[in-house]
């Protein structure tokens, strides 16, 4: 009588070895990371005044740059909404104008952003003693490289032709999911 429960317990334990689970991937996992790091030094309260005084506004941060930073979120929202794109001159272009008051607001945003960008590029061209077209081309290339995947950018094709494209994601294309094979073809 006592052997029966013991035999049953041994039989259950022997059957609990489980089944094998394969957790390996067919290829090693790849991680593609692009990062930009901006380092700022902020003055803390109560700090000793042994450091040099902060530079004046005209020494590094102009009014144009301050205004651009203030509207940076709105410009990015316009790019994310696919209303705005980066053109070949380093300026913002309206690709699709929304109707009504919002459209007028987008036009005013683009006009203000482009005025500040032009002023900054002209000042840089004068300080570096290079043609404005050189600075425009450099800034346009910088803005294209900073654009997020899916944003509209103007890209050169061949020698003289340009076209609007949506920036592609860098790295390998994302995997696509496939439905399991069944006996009938998909509709």
What does this protein structure show overall?
The chain is of the alpha+beta class and 187 residues long. The chain has a domain at 61-166. The longest helix has 29 residues, at 100-128. The chain has four helices and four strands; from the N terminus they run ααββααββ. The radius of gyration is 29 Å and the shape is elongated. The mean pLDDT is 78. A four-stranded mixed beta sheet has the order 2-1-3-4. A hairpin with a 3-residue loop joins strand 3 (152-157) and strand 4.
**DSSP E strands, number:** 4
What fraction of residues sit in β-strands? 5-15%
- Spatial sequence of strands, sheet with the most strands: 2-1-3-4
What is the average per-residue confidence, as pLDDT, rounded to a whole number? 78
What gap, in angstroms, lies between the N and C termini?
A: 63 Å
Q: Helices and strands: which structural class?
A: alpha+beta
* Main sheet record: 4 strands, mixed
- Unreliable segments of 5+ consecutive residues: none
**Helix proportion range:** 25-40%
Order of helices and strands: HHEEHHEE
Number of helices: 4
Global shape: elongated
Radius of gyration: 29 Å
Features:
single chain; 40% helix; 187 residues; alpha+beta; 4 strands; elongated; 4-stranded mixed sheet
List the helices and strands and how they pair.
Blueprint: H1 3-14, H2 63-80, E1 84-86, E2 92-94, H3 100-128, H4 132-146, E3 152-157, E4 161-166
Parallel strand pairs: 1-3
Antiparallel strand pairs: 1-2, 3-4
Helix pairs in contact: 2-3, 3-4
Concise account of the structure shown:
This protein is an alpha+beta fold and 187 residues long. The chain has four helices and four strands; from the N terminus they run ααββααββ. It has a four-stranded mixed beta sheet.
């Amino acid at each position: 009588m006592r052997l029966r429960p013991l035999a049953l317990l041994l039989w259950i334990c022997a059957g609990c070895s489980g089944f094998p689970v394969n957790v390996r991937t067919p290829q090693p996992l790849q991680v593609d990371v692009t990062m930009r790091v901006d380092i700022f030094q902020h003055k803390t309260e109560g700090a000793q005044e042994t450091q040099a005084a902060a530079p004046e506004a005209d020494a590094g941060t102009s009014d144009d740059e301050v205004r651009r930073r203030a509207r940076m979120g709105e410009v990015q929202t316009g790019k994310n909404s696919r209303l705005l794109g980066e053109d070949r001159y380093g300026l913002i272009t309206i690709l699709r104008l929304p109707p009504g008051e919002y459209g007028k607001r987008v036009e005013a945003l683009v006009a203000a952003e482009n005025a500040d960008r032009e002023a900054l590029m002209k000042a840089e061209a004068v300080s570096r003693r290079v043609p404005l077209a050189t600075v425009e081309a450099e800034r346009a290339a910088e803005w294209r490289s900073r654009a997020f995947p899916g944003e509209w950018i103007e890209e050169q094709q061949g020698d003289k032709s340009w076209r609007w494209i949506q920036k592609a994601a860098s790295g390998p294309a994302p995997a696509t999911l496939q439905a399991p094979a069944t006996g009938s073809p998909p509709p």
